[in-house]
Amino acid sequence: NDSREVVQQLMDEYRAATTKDYINFGSAQMGQTEQT
Known about the structure:
elongated, 2 helices
């Protein structure tokens, strides 16, 4: 579960990094980290 979740996060981060929403993605991630 943890490994799969980490991989998914990396994939999402990579995909976001290739878009103009990378900065927004980073902000959203920080906000969602403690909610999960």
